[in-house]
Design goal:
The protein contains six helices and no strands. By secondary structure, it is mainly alpha-helical. The termini are far apart. The protein binds fe (ii) ion (2 copies).
Length: about 190
């Protein structure tokens, strides 16, 4: 047996021994390379961001009216559904880390990185959504950099979400490029 193979076998024996210690911590083992509480906090901030995005897209979906807006409404609905899926991915990862997903409505807007902007017409709505996506993109990218190789599973969850947010931003930009065709679609007066 070569020296390297011998070392690897010794490591495996050590890994096996450690796996039996602190079994109550589940997926969280000694080789976890991040500050667990910090990562749970970041994932909860991402979760709050996603909840705010679901609410904003839902509002935009229901409020968007006008002859040119069906395709835009479809886009809002699809984005809302995908943001909700992100909420689920984040909550599941927080549980795996032994944390608790924070769904409390109190302070959710403060915990979120993006903003809840209502928008008064379709252009406003799309622009506000684009701003929120760009904030989410930057904040997830910095979370990914912070986590690095210390927690590859949490990093992958954020990377999957980031990829979708980038697609959302691209969808919104292409809608804005068509703005000339629907800039007169003002929302109906309410109240
Ligand atoms: Fe999202
Ligand atoms: Fe998004």
């Amino acid at each position: 047996m070569s020296k390297n193979t011998k070392q690897f076998v010794m490591d495996i024996l050590d890994i096996r021994r450690r796996a039996r210690q602190h079994m109550e911590q589940g997926a969280l083992t000694k080789t976890y390379g991040c500050d667990r509480d910090m990562v749970v906090g970041l994932l909860n901030a991402a979760l709050a961001t996603e909840v705010v995005c679901v609410l904003r897209y839902k509002r935009h979906y229901y409020m968007a009216q006008g002859i040119h807006s069906q395709s835009i409404r479809d886009e809002f609905r699809e984005h809302a559904e995908e943001e909700l899926q992100h909420v689920g991915w984040l909550a599941e990862r927080i549980i795996e880390l032994g944390g608790e997903p924070d769904f409390s409505p109190h302070g959710i807007a403060d915990r979120a990185h993006s903003e809840y902007a209502e928008g008064t017409n379709l252009i406003d709505m799309i622009e506000e959504d684009l701003v929120a996506e760009r904030i989410a993109i930057d904040s997830y990218r910095s979370m990914i950099q912070y986590i690095g190789d210390g927690d590859s599973s949490s990093r992958r969850v954020l990377e999957r979400i980031l990829e979708v947010e980038e697609e959302h931003a691209e969808d919104l930009v292409s809608l804005l490029r068509q703005r000339q065709s629907f800039k007169t679609d003002i929302l109906p007066k309410t109240g």
